[in-house]
Design a protein that fits this description.
Helices cover about 50% and strands about 15% of the residues. It is α/β, with parallel strands linked by helices. The protein has three domains: about 1-15 and about 155-240, no CATH class; about 20-150, no CATH class; about 255-325, Winged helix-like DNA-binding domain superfamily/Winged helix DNA-binding domain (Arc Repressor Mutant, subunit A), CATH 1.10.10. Strands 3-4-1-5 form a four-stranded mixed sheet. Helix 9 crosses helix 13 (about 280-285) and helix 12 packs across helix 14 (about 290-300). The mean pLDDT is about 90. InterPro entries: ArsR-like_HTH (IPR011991), HTH_ArsR_DNA-bd_dom (IPR001845), Metal_resp_trans_reg (IPR051011), WH-like_DNA-bd_sf (IPR036388), WH_DNA-bd_sf (IPR036390). This is ArsR family transcriptional regulator. Keywords: DNA-binding, Transcription, Transcription regulation.
């Protein structure tokens, strides 16, 4: 697939976080549809809650049966955010407002093709007149059980990634913004019209035509492109800096070389600065105290491992080249 963009699309591009998308992707992660080594501790910790959902709520299984790789997935169950600051409740309201006729059409398309054989109970749910509400209820249950308890930390890393991505697009253009989004994306420069190539099965060419692109980072998900009406043109991509996302390292994990050199908590702060962050973002991300994070940043800065830059009213910390080398896996 090819997405044509122009310089005018830079100003029209937007950035948003989707709590509902994280809830759906968290289910897929637990179901084994995706796998990320960095999130294995989180999967282990939340596995009992996921298994309880599967036992008690058949609609969760019906939802998972719709989600597949390499084929069409019904858009109404995971619509892209509209670029406004919607919370989970606002996004869920959009799902619940889906007309039944639209849901039926998307489900029929979703269930077409080889290797699509949902269980009988799932087909009964798809055929029910309240299918939209039942699938929305499954998403809400996943949010409450799996994502909501960790949402402050999740939001911190997602918002930090958005600031980084927006800065790259404005300062260096499309090539820099797309370069490290996903291995399946490639930037092809071309004068007034450049192209984002997506390695998928869609042979079509789509033009943003001044509408801009919506960037949506994800922790639990993978690359998704939205190019069909009524949704905005959007790319969902894996956020950077997820390894230290859900709190300090597991106390049962053996110390590695960096832990032994600078201490576990200080090492966690250094690793978390894979992207620049403020002190408050690090507190939310790592679950450490404000004073503790401040002390660690002072020591790391004096050692030449991090530097600080003022951006408006906030001070953001970033790793130096020496800090990058020390924190490298």
């Amino acid at each position: 697939m090819r997405i044509e963009v122009t310089p005018a699309d830079v100003a029209a591009s937007r950035y948003a976080v989707s709590p509902l998308g994280e809830a759906v992707s968290a289910l897929r992660l637990h179901a084994g549809q995706r796998s990320y080594a960095s999130l294995a501790p989180w999967v282990t910790r939340t596995r009992p809650a996921y298994e309880r959902l599967r036992r008690e709520l058949p609609a969760v299984g019906a939802l998972l049966a719709l989600l597949r790789r390499g084929g069409y997935n019904a858009d109404f169950i995971q619509p892209p955010p509209d670029g406004t600051a919607r919370d989970f409740a606002g996004e869920l309201a959009v799902v619940r407002a889906t007309p039944l006729a639209q849901a039926r059409d998307e489900l029929a398309r979703n269930l077409t093709g080889p290797r699509v054989d949902p269980p009988a109970y799932a087909r009964e749910i798809y055929a029910s007149p309240d299918v939209v509400d039942r699938l929305a209820g499954a998403i809400e249950a996943a949010w409450i059980a799996l994502v909501q308890p960790d949402w402050p930390r999740l939001r911190a890393i997602l918002e930090r990634d958005l600031v980084h991505r927006a800065g790259r697009l404005l300062a260096y253009g499309w090539g820099a913004a797309v370069a490290d989004l996903d291995p399946r994306l490639r930037w092809v420069p071309g004068g007034e019209v450049g192209v984002i190539e997506v390695a998928d099965r869609d042979p079509r060419t789509h033009s943003l035509a001044g509408k801009g692109l919506l960037f949506v980072p994800t922790v639990f998900g993978a690359l998704i492109t939205y190019v069909e009406a009524p949704w905005p043109f959007a790319i969902v991509y894996r956020a950077s800096g997820v390894a230290e996302l859900l709190g300090p390292p597991d106390p049962g994990r053996p110390d590695d070389a960096l832990d032994r050199l600078v201490g576990r908590s200080r090492a966690a702060v250094l690793r978390a600065l894979a992207l620049p962050a403020t002190t408050s973002q690090l507190v939310a991300q790592l679950g450490l105290s404000l004073g503790g994070v401040g002390d660690h940043l002072t020591v790391l800065r004096e050692a030449g491992l991090v530097s600080r830059v003022r951006a408006g009213r906030s001070v953001r910390y970033r790793r130096t080249p020496l800090g990058d080398a020390l924190a490298a896996d």
